[in-house]
Amino acid sequence: MDVATARMRLESMLHELDRSIGVLRAGTDGHGDRHGGSSADAGAGLTDADRARAMLDAAARQRTAVLAALRRLDDGGYGRCADCGSAVPEGRLEARPEAARCVQCQSRAERRR
Length: 113
Prior knowledge:
This protein is mainly alpha-helical. The protein has 4 helices and no strands.
């Protein structure tokens, strides 16, 4: 993927993530209906809040990855694996423009978790 296309896609992703994070934060600000309703409603609200927090955490992690990819673009390291230095396959960058690792190194990193 050429640098201009990668930058455009990453900046678009960043914009969408910022929008999503704003919406999710508005939904987890703790201003829900705390008065009235059944305990089942309260339990459902807690589950919804937990789900929203999990989605917010995932969006924040992806935002961090996108910002790191934009820094790699600026530094000239975009498209190179952060671990082994090999080229990240074009198909991987098409699917995940924020990818910092080649498939093999990403697999190793996930196994270590």
